[in-house]
Structures are given as C-alpha cells and as structure tokens.
Amino acid sequence: MGTVQHDRAVDMVIAKLRRDFALPSRAQIEIRAIPAREWDQQVLAVEASGGYSQGEWVVISGGRSFLIDLTDPARAEVEAASALADDVMDELNRPWPELVTGGVLETQVDELGVAVWSHSSGIACPVGYLQQALGSAGLIIAAR
Known about the structure:
The protein is of the alpha+beta class.
C-alpha cells in the first residue's frame, strides 16, 4: 500500500476521472489504481523497473494501464485524463472532448497549478468537472 497521503491523493484523482469519463460508451469500464510496487507483483515485468517510489501508482481502465506519479497530483491528473481521452477518441473515432463551437479541449496544469481541461478560446474547467460544468452547459458535444 502507499502512504495515507498518497492513498487520499489517488482516491481524489480516480474520483475526478470517473466524473469526467462517465460516458455511455464507458459505462462498463472501471477506473482504478494500485500502487506501482504491487503492479510488479501482479503482472510479470518485461524489464526490471529498478523500483518505484511511494508516489507512483498504476491507473487501470479497461484493457489499458499507465503509470502516474502523485508527487505532483495536478500533473498526475493531467496525464491520466489525457490518456483516457485518447481511449475515448479511439472508441468514438473522432476528437473528444470537442467543443460545440469547434476545437478540442486538452489537459494542462494552469498558472495556479490546477489540472484543467482548456482551449485556446479561453474555455476551461478543472479536471473532474468536465461533465458537470461544460457538459451540462451544452458546451461540449455529447459522446454517444
């Protein structure tokens, strides 16, 4: 297990991802995470990893897994949301999340150190609030 601090941080990241990716096409796809140190015990490593830090976790969603480092939670949220958005784009065969006015939101850490979905037009919202803020306002094209 990770430290209590990292356990809480990963719980928050996973909760945000679940909210943003609560899409009809992903209804049966679980998003979860395990400490990277435990991952090596569950999956035979192709290469020796040299060990993982307490802050490194493996996010698992569908048939995909990827590493995030919770020593920088905002960066971890950005990387995880971006990876999952790639999966959604593959499923939909189109850009996602796409603004109704044109353009695609991308994840980044903003100037305040917050993980956000943003577009050069100035539209932005924190990771974890995509559906609640922009989806319910009708600003993004619904994923079907």
